[in-house]
Amino acid sequence: MIADLTETIIKILFIFSINVGFYSPILGWVERKQSALMQDRVGANRANILNFKIIGLFHPIADAVKVLTKEDFIPEGADKFFHTLAPFISLTPAIVTFAVIPFGGNYELWGHSVKLVIADLDVGMLFIFAFASLSTYGVVLGGWSSNNNWSLLGGLRASAQMLSYEVAMGLTLIGVFMVYGSLRLTDIGMIQENFFRWGIFMQPLGFILFLTCAIAENKRAPFDQPEAESELVAGYFTEYSSMKFVMFWMGEFLEIVTISGIVTTLFFGAWHLPFVTDQMLLSWFSPAGPNGAAILAMIVNVLVFFLKVSFFIWLLMTIRWTLPRFRYDQVMRLGWKMMLPLALLNIFITGIVLLVWK
Amino acid sequence: MEIKDFQAWVGNLPADKLKPKKVRKSIDLSLWERLYIFEVLRGLAITSRHFFGNLVGFVVPPNGKKRKIPTIYYPEEKAVMPPAYRGRPVLVANPDGTERCVACGLCEKICPAFAISIIGDERANGDRYPSSYTLDLSRCIYCGYCEEVCPKEAIVMSDEYEGLCASRRRDMLYTKEQLLRPAAQLQKRIDYVRRIYAKCNY
Questions:
Q1: Which position among A281, A319, A328, B101 has the lowest Cβ density within 10 Å, counted as fewest Cβ atoms?
Q2: pLDDT tens digit string along A168-196?
């Protein structure tokens, strides 16, 4: 009981510090610096401590200080309660969804079985869908309660877009569940120990469709209709400032991390290196004793998983800074007339292949 | 064209020319391009090429090599302005430190913003000179008319682009002493002005 509790708390602290403490501040820097490099610019490099400027890595700190000391402004006529509530609703699901994503295998530590996932739910993917759709409320509430035309338009667009793409996103993953026969993400990760059973080989079309839908859910370019700068000032968070504004941004960045985590888990072998099973890792590290070997294998698992996640974050950032924004009708047409039929086709083909294979 | 004439002209046109043209938006896109996914991959390849190309020498810029990124690190590096650049107008000084200006008042007259005010005086040998030459930089619009009109090449637009503004208006009033620059420093601009305005035969 005590051991279980300690284990869970350690895992929660670990994921929380990685996501909120590392990824969300660093992604602001990555976004600036990567876009700068892609566009032949230099990017943020002026913040310094005692004249040390480690390629602009102090900018997140400067941003944090600026944001915390800024005025927290609520516009006249805004609904104060919902205006304050919206960023919380938007941020929480982004943090919570990472609970079911596994970042390592099962190991024995001092006679105690340790699973490297916070909550090993047997409806893991449904849990993620449920919370992903909750974040819609944050956006819609933020847009509505600001008492601003642009915010309201942004909120409306966000709700329409997220509802449309949620349908397609759910359907694209059904193919994955048919192949692996489970909704539990640890099971899906376990099966992908075999390199030829990685999701990208089993479901190539599903991967492309899911990535597209996930970017649309994330509301980033090319699907950033809800916050289109050139049309809606800043969309649903036009009237937000200070820490609340940053909470929307943090939610967005953490969603990127979560999407990368899901893509890694479902399509790119979760915590596994190609052709390397957990048993092989344990046998390689066996000179360190059973417990030492388990700890070393865990570290390798976590490193591999987060390296893959970082790669997909890079990919999402590259897509965001490459593609132009879709028009609103194009977003809807893509969602309902392309994504949905293709997802159904994917299910159909997967079903036929599974039947023939058996 | 009068409206009546226009109507007559329209009436003479054959009927098929009056039909609104059909806009064919996707005429230039092939099927390959309309699939979009391959074009997306091509775009990603282009941006990634720039990304990885610039990643070399990202932490430590390669020394002595021509930098790929054309950004100028402003306070440390200064942009070199071409001679055609119109910065702060300055007075050209003779080698002995006196000004070339003869206080003819043409620049004062031509200045569209009334930024220049001159008080002329005469030396003992009969040469005219400005006893006071005040340039109000808060009024100056950097048009370069003063330079164009000057018969003595005494006022030119320099390449100075720093310190053009101040917090107080009286700091923006420049006196003759503040504006005098040695001619060697402005030679490029003077040559340029000669070349350009020689084309116009006044």
A1: A328
A2: 888 888 888 888 888 888 888 888 888 88
Pairing between strand B89-93 and B180-182?
parallel
Query: Which chain A positions have a beta carbon within 8 Å of B43's beta carbon?
Result: 322-323
Looking at domain B89-197, its CATH architecture is 2-Layer Sandwich (3.30)
Q: What angle do CA B174, B179, B181 make, to 5 degrees?
A: 170
What's the pLDDT score for residue B12?
Answer: 67
Candidates A165, A164, A128, A140; CA nearest to A87 is A140
Q: Does A322 touch chain B (CB under 8 A)?
A: yes
Return the sign of the alpha-carbon dihedral for residues B46, B50, B52, B53. positive
Instruction: Quote the tokens at residue A159.
Output: 């709700």
**Going edge to edge, which strands form the sheet with B89-93?**
B155-157, B89-93, B180-182
Which residue among A38, A55, A323 places its CB closest to the CB of B51?
A: A38
CB atoms B40 and A322 under 8 Å: yes
Query: Among A222-226, A335-339, B133-137, which stretch is predicted with the lowest mean pLDDT?
Result: A222-226
What torsion, rounded to 10 degrees, do the Cα atoms B148, B151, B154, B157 define? Answer: 10
Q: Where are the domains of chain B?
A: 1-14+30-80, 89-197
Contacts of A167 (CB under 8 A, 6+ apart): A340
DSSP strands (E only) in chain A:
106-109, 112-115
What pLDDT is stored for residue A243 in this prediction?
84
A57 touches chain B (CB under 8 A): no
Burial class (CB in 10 A: 0-12, 13-18, 19+), B134: middle
* pTM, entire model: 0.78
Cα-Cα end-to-end distance for chain B:
38
- A269-305 tens-digit pLDDT: 888 888 877 778 778 877 877 788 888 888 888 888 8
- CA-angle at A258, arms to A245 and A123, nearest 5°: 125
Q: What residues in B contact A38, CB-CB < 8 Å? A: 47-48, 50-51, 54
Q: Exposed, middle or buried by CB within 10 Å (0-12, 13-18, 19+), for B69?
A: middle
